[in-house]
Amino acid sequence: MAKQLTKQLVKPLINPLSKKLPERRCRIVLTGGPGGGKTTAADLYRREIGDEVVIVPEAATLLYLGGFPRAGEKEVRQATQKAIYHVQKNLEDAQSAHYRNRVLLCDRGTVDGAVYWPKDPLGFFEHLGTSLESELARYDAVIFFETAAVGGISIEGGNPMRIETDKEALILDRKLKNLWSQHSNFIFIPHNASFIKKINAGLTELVKIMDKHHKS
Question: In terms of DSSP bridges, do strands 53-56 and 103-107 run parallel, antiparallel, or are they unpaired?
């Protein structure tokens, strides 16, 4: 299956950017509801584009694998989301400082935690001493992968840390879109029955962003 997927992807996905990027770092978020395919897309894009891109891994997955709880009392959920926020932010900053001439492709961003915050999502930013506007300003662009749950496709499998139901994925997808769509460079990649076509649509937009950054 993996060989077949690679064979299908190689030709349509080749869009190399041969020139060196400027010193100013470009930071792009891949986000969306659970089961959107963003993590798979990020890895494929890195392999296809090469050393001009570096992936910032999803902080939530790193912490959940390390033992942080995914549910529980309000205080537990708040503590977990605060930890995710700080790890995500510092991961991005560390990668930015280390890979000075590369585009940062972030698997989720600092805004995502707001939809997992108990009650009012905006309370997330207030509690952390920041704002939605400040967090959106961290990124040059947002590529939003709509969850496959909108097409009636089960999101089970893939990420072993995923515990959401299809119904919960739809709710989270809408909440995330509501926040991230306020970014001035928000790009929406809708669900597609063909994951290959969805991946290609995202790559086309990513290459446009990188090319624009290169020319700036």
Answer: parallel
Whether residue 144 contacts residue 31, with contact meaning beta carbons closer than 8 Å, is answered with yes
25-215 belongs to which CATH class? Answer: alpha beta
Report which secondary-structure segment, H or E, holds 29: strand 27-31
CB 11 within 8 A of CB 125: no
Check residue 48 and give its pLDDT: 92
State the CB neighbour count (10 A cutoff) for residue 130: 16
Q: Give average pLDDT by consecutive 10-residue segment, the chain, 216 residues.
A: 42 42 73 91 92 92 87 88 96 92 94 93 94 97 94 70 80 96 98 94 95 78
Please give the pLDDT value at position 173.
Answer: 96
For the chain, what are the domain ranges? Answer: 25-215
In the prediction, which pLDDT does 157 show? Answer: 60
CA distance 162 to 151: 19
Contact by Cβ (8 Å): 177, 62? no
In one letter, which amino acid is 166?
A: D
166-200 core/surface letters (b: 16 or more CB in 10 A; e: else)? beebbebbebbbebbeebeebbebebbeebeebbb
* Residue 27 CB neighbour total at 10 angstroms: 19
